[in-house]
Design goal:
This protein is α+β, with helices and mostly antiparallel strands and about 350 residues long. Helix content is about 55%, strand content about 10%. Helix 1 runs parallel beside helix 4. The longest helix is centred in the middle third of the chain and has 19 residues.
Amino acid sequence: MRPDVRRSIVSAHLLTRLAAERGLGLDACLHGTGIDAAQLGDPAAEITGAQELQLIRNLVAALGHMPGLGLDAGLRYHLSSYGIWGYTLLSSPTFRSAAELAVRYLDLSYAFGRYRLERRGEDLLIVLDDSELPDDLRQFLVERDFAAWANAAWEMRPGGFPAKAAQFRFPRPSYAWRLDKLCGVRPTFDAPLNAVLLPAKDLDAPLPQANPTMARLCEEQCRQLLAKRQVRSGISGQIRDRLLRNPADMPSLDDVAAELHVSVRSLRRRLDEENTSFRALLDEVRQTLAEEMLTAGHMKLAEIAARLGYTEPAAFIAAFKRWKGQSPTAYRESRRQLR
């Protein structure tokens, strides 16, 4: 999650309502976030991920002693809370296609962890990668995002997603029975991954409100909205434009600093002030171009890798899996099926 990518204020509104019900005042919730009460009351307002993360930090610092607080938060999120992203999932033909869409446009959700999809034969392992989450908020965010996802699954199909297996990285909590109920199976704890294994028969069964035509229209709106929210300005915008000029021969941080007539240290500091880094911008440009090349043409993966400045296709494939939670080949095939 890019901290500067804008998101709907709806999630912040849900969190402050939860806090109020637990006795935490609005001023304490919003302290240091840059969000005011008027903005919170405007459903069309947008904030950055960094602002919401500060709100969550305030909430956890004050109320984190309450068992299952993350689950309580996550169960307040419904598909309608996500706008067009939620409606796209609801219109999807199957759970499998909904999962692929969810990961593809994850920055339109309120998740902070990154999801990835891994095939296990015909079954699907959905992994919630919490490795980049702040230590003090990790368990709250995993619980919140997992509960919100489980809630969405119930809305897409009564009965939700009866999992084959589930696991979490954190120790078994006193309220583990709540996770049993959400998973439909007893999870293991202190595991190497946060993950749920879904069986093929449920993944590929038609969803009650499936509407493939509407799903395609909604996905196009998701694409446009995500592009709008990801627009960069300032020094990061200048660097992004520079990187787009010749992606096959990406400049180094030193090269860019020299072109902009600033020191490397100063450039790093200014990027940090804009909640990004040179590496993040490089990944962003490569991801954007990779998606376009995979969707628009029939280029071989080796050619795409070369055009993006990778010396080996394997490096490109590994990077794409990290960005999108699926291989370039799987992404290309999913895009063809939507045409």
